[in-house]
Write a structure and sequence with these properties.
Largest sheet: 7 strands, mixed
Strand content: 15-25%
Radius of gyration: 17 Å
């Protein structure tokens, strides 16, 4: 069971990373930086809330022919099984792990702008699920303010066993959706304890 006081503290910490929009507004920087900052902050927050697991980005490998696409966040057991007689590869935030130890995979996207985005994300998450059907799949994303058709995409995802969360009111990064964070952390807690 999650400690609500700790969850609130972590949500405040993540709110700080949203200020990157204000800081970088009008500056000529790679837009991927925004998503990278949020991925790092979310991994850190998950580590703080669920310290009995490891959180990295990387790849899941079953054997030489079966592997996932790169995942933004992989949640896995601290006790790691050997892969091909060798320990998993972990370097800083990056890891290559066996599907047997993976509990959850999460893709983090700043904006969803089209059905193609959802198809790509679904393929990415499914690449992990095919290696171990017990792996739970999550998407954390906002949607571009000029796009008003997100609900149809969200409904598509629900039919594909992917849990979708947005942490932004109205889908933008302008204001944080506290309830979205709380629901996300509760779902992660449930999946880690019942998987």
């Amino acid at each position: 069971m999650l400690n609500q006081e700790q969850v609130d503290k972590e949500i405040k910490s993540i709110e700080e990373c949203f200020r990157i929009d204000e800081y970088l507004k009008g500056k000529n920087v790679n837009k991927k930086l925004f998503g990278d900052v949020f991925e790092i902050a979310l991994r850190k927050t998950l580590r703080n809330l669920f310290n009995q697991y490891k959180f990295s980005y990387g790849i899941i490998i079953k054997n030489e022919k079966e592997k996932s696409h790169e995942m933004d966040i992989i949640v896995y057991n601290k006790e790691l099984p050997l892969y091909d007689g060798k320990p998993p590869f972990i370097s800083g935030e990056f890891a290559i792990v066996s599907p047997d130890c993976v509990k959850v995979v999460i893709q983090v996207k700043r904006y969803i702008t089209s059905p193609k985005d959802f198809d790509s994300i679904k393929d990415n998450l499914d690449s992990a699920y095919l290696l171990n059907p017990k792996i739970k799949k999550y998407l954390v994303a906002g949607w571009h303010p000029s796009k008003k058709t997100l609900q149809a995409y969200k409904d598509q995802f629900r039919n594909k066993s992917i849990k979708y969360f947005t942490f932004w009111k109205d889908g933008t990064w302008n204001s944080i959706n506290i309830e979205g964070f709380q629901e996300f952390f509760s779902n992660i807690d449930y999946d880690l304890n019942n998987n």
